[in-house]
Design a protein that fits this description.
The protein is α/β, with parallel strands linked by helices. 36% of the residues lie in helices and 21% in strands. It folds into 2 domains: 116 residues, Urease, subunit C, domain 1; 287 residues, Metal-dependent hydrolases (TIM Barrel, Alpha-Beta Barrel). The two termini are 26 Å apart.
Length: 421
């Protein structure tokens, strides 16, 4: 074989192999399939071979297109997959944070012009180009910290033209960065001021105007709903999700974040790929997700930023529910780092480093319906690979708050490296 790129003498390769058809559950999440002194051959953006260096080199018949690179003492993993972000929006919310530190409640922040309505105003006022520039900055930072696939939601326009503008901005961004972007329509993120106390009318707008426009232009792959007390109730959420399903969109649900409303059970009922947050999910709701094959996507940085309780990851893993992790990057939780997310999952949700690594790679790939192409280092899959300046998975959380990235490879190309381009 003649690879384009050949990585050799890697201290450990965590391949996460063997779960392309279904996510890891239970004890499987601790098995990251380590290859010692490994090598990875890449051609045409795909993984051509992976295994011990001696075995891979034995099959190389011609020198690679680029010089062979050695990584002794380092750890290779699949590229991280951030399966829940609110990447594109206008403005920023640092003033909200200052008010929160001063003891102001969320209601007081809203009354002073902050909160989600501040982001709504800034997003509506921004041009599509401005949204692209903002999102580019965030996504570039995420890529430099190892996220080679990022889900990006709309949800701060809350009318048809501005929701389309947000999704079009993500489409534009896809052409500008060597990163895999997955678009999600979240028109049902909040109730805009012009529909205050007319939630049913807004639901009708989402179903009858926004969804047809989004799907007509092919701007989203998923539809999400913020199913929560004071936002969209179970019936309203179900109507939106089923309408989206009829339009051919896959489903996600913001579920049981603040109160135990039943969002987890709804996600299972409608066949959602994932239910996200789940801080307050009931045992019955989690059991329903388990039976339906719905992935639990946990967002510990949100609990950190809100200074609230964390989701019960240990219970979910021990009951056999597949668990993924994501940043929940948004104006109220500006967390771009899955390294930070991994650390929080271990320190605050008692996950092990290997479980967390499974949760940001192969399980996160399944949370975006990409388990067959991404999330593990296996022959034929996309060559999205991280080389980390650490010797093993446990080091990821022992040395937290540090940039451990040595090299980022996305679709077979070196896109970031401590050695330079």
């Amino acid at each position: 074989m003649k690879p384009d790129l050949l990585l050799t003498n890697i201290g450990q390769v965590a391949t996460l192999a063997g779960h392309s058809e279904s996510p890891k559950t239970g004890a499987q999440m601790s098995d990251v399939s380590i290859v010692e002194n490994g090598a990875i051959a890449i051609k045409d953006g795909k993984i051509l071979a992976v295994g011990p260096t001696t075995e891979v080199l034995a099959h190389v018949t011609e020198a690679p297109r680029l010089p062979e690179i050695e990584f002794p003492g380092m750890l290779a993993t699949p590229g991280f997959i951030d399966s829940h972000t609110h990447l594109a929006f206008g403005g920023s919310r640092e003033n909200d944070f200052a008010m929160k530190l001063a003891g102001k409640s969320y209601l007081e922040i809203l009354e002073s012009g902050g909160g989600i309505l501040s982001t709504l105003r800034s997003t509506r006022a921004a041009s599509q180009g401005e949204l692209v520039r903002n999102a580019f900055s965030f996504a570039e930072g995420m890529l430099s910290m190892g996220s080679t696939t990022i889900e990006a939601k709309s949800g701060y326009g809350l009318d048809t033209s501005n929701e389309l503008k947000m999704l079009k901005a993500v489409t534009d961004l896809r052409e500008m960065l060597p990163i895999n972007l997955v678009s999600t329509f979240l028109g049902a993120h909040a109730i805009p001021p012009e529909y205050e106390e007319r939630t049913d009318a807004y639901v009708d707008l989402v179903i009858n105007e926004m969804l047809p426009a989004v799907t007509q232009h092919g701007l989203a792959e998923f539809c999400d709903v913020f199913c929560e007390q004071g936002v969209f109730d179970i019936e309203q959420s179900k109507n939106i999700l089923l309408a989206a399903k009829r339009k051919g969109l896959k489903l996600k649900v913001h579920a049981d974040e603040i109160v135990q409303l039943g969002g987890a059970s709804l996600a299972a009922e409608v066949g959602a790929v994932s239910a996200d947050h789940l801080l307050m999910a009931s045992d019955d709701g989690l059991e329903s997700m388990l039976k339906a094959g719905t992935i639990a996507t946990l967002l510990p940085a949100t609990a950190f930023s809100l200074d609230t309780k964390y989701a019960d990851a240990r219970k979910m893993i021990e009951m056999g529910l597949p668990v993924a992790l994501a940043t929940d990057f948004n104006p109220n939780c500006a967390n771009e780092s899955l390294f930070f997310t991994i650390a929080l999952s271990c320190y605050k949700m008692k996950m092990t480093p290997r479980e967390a690594l499974s949760a940001v790679t192969i399980n996160a790939a399944h949370a975006l319906d990409r388990g067959d192409t991404h999330g593990s280092i296996e022959v034929g899959k996309a060559a999205d690979i991280l080389i980390l300046d650490c010797p093993n998975p446990e080091y990821l959380t022992w040395r937290f708050g540090v940039d451990l990235i040595h090299t980022v490879i996305s679709n077979g190309e070196v896109v970031h490296s401590k050695l330079g381009p």
